[in-house]
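The freezer alarm interrupted the setup, so I double-checked each line after restarting. Inputs confirmed:
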Amino acid sequence: MRGGTLIQPGANYGILFLIVGTLLTVVISLALAVPAGVGAAIFLAEAMTGGLRLAISIMVELLAAIPSVVFGLWGYIVVIPFLGQHVFPFLAGALGFIPVFAGPPGSGYGLLTAGFVLSLMIVPLIVATMRDAIAAQPTTLREAALGLGATRFETTWNVLLPGTRRVLIGATILALGRALGETMAVLMVSGNALDMLPNNIYAPVSTMASFIVSQLDSALQDPLGLAVRSLAEIALVLMLISVVINALARMLLAHFAAPAART
Amino acid sequence: MRWSRRVLTISGWALSGLALLVLTGLMLSILGVVLVMGLSAFSLSLFTTVTQGNGGGLLNAIEGAAVISIGAMLLAAPIGIAAGLYVCEYRSTRWASAIRFLSDVLVGVPSIVLGYFGYVTMVEWLGWGFSVAAASIVMAMLCMPYICRTTELALRGVSNDLREAAYAIGADDGQVILRVVMPAALPGILTGALLALAISVGETAPLLYTAGWSSFLWDGRRRKRRMNSAASSVVVLSRSRLLIR
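Predicted 3D structure, all chains:
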């Protein structure tokens, strides 16, 4: 036959499992990175001063400079054995009554591991942006709240943080865009599931970006061009999603930053 | 003070401090693992011999990373700096905002999509095969928007007084930009180029699709010659174990 390939009766193909895997890992990574990032930013901006603050700031920002394969390698050597042998069995036992946390806890390669490693890769962005945003809040607000008898933490939490809401949303969406496109680290820790939807939080998954790399071999040995074109389709969907998300984030950030930048 | 406020304050500080502690701890863990495991295998032959199977050195990978990154810089730096110049010095034109928008879009495109684009167009369609040329062009596409943006920011930092003074003594556009503004902004522009170089050295996924991998040194051919990069070595050497999963 020309220009086609024989498909087994009853077989069907789709990228739903990739879209689900991508969105779930990204949601988990944001759920871990946003609270941790905001907490760390509060502590950095309000509780620390001088050399220590500078040193830890540099440290957290160094995280952003580490190539993603190194995160993947670290995940492979350290995180997977630790999570797979100690944390996941414990979680499955302690939180087993919640359906998504119920066992089997798996080998350590999976959704939660990928989300955890991803969250570390995006957290520097959130910490750095939020630290600067909190520090940039007007001193008068701070003095007024302290003058009313609020403690320093109440001042930060109730007065300064609400002012940084738009920055947080913008930084989160930028982080989301970065997490969507992350390839190598996810490839090395996610378990690279094929045609299955995850049934719990420990199950192996594939993301769109990592799937393109893991199918490198099919692209190379492909006389019909079928694999190359299907992968191009995945790349197209991934590109559209990330470009839309990035445009959204930039619009939000530009809207926020516009009055300050024009002075 | 009511106890609920005291609890909020204390637990708030404790939780945010804990978050920072955990982040620094994980950071130290990454650095520690890489240093300890790397140093135990460290030797001079790592830099002087090529990879053989799962052993040997990394000379081919280091050379590959250098060749691809230098190639990418040679392509990306002139275009990126020129684009940044235009976007900053002619910022009120419609073209400038179009270029800025497109370069923002390019930053948002995941690197693997760029790599796959290179694979489909250059490796397959143009028939270059896995090659230095394809890898360098894709890396240049990846770096260009960063260079453009940092150049624009550096040029914006140059005070307008300098430009006005130069125009006042009779310089034309080209002289103002090349002789006055560019020298003043040079440190910022170089920083941006170095940043882009760092990004391209650490990038892996697009290289697997454009440079391939090989255990040999470069023979000088720009096309139809597989190359290896330091970052892809990490993946390829652990690949046999990855595929078992």
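Quick read of the result. Residues 259-263 of chain A have pLDDT under 50 and may be disordered.
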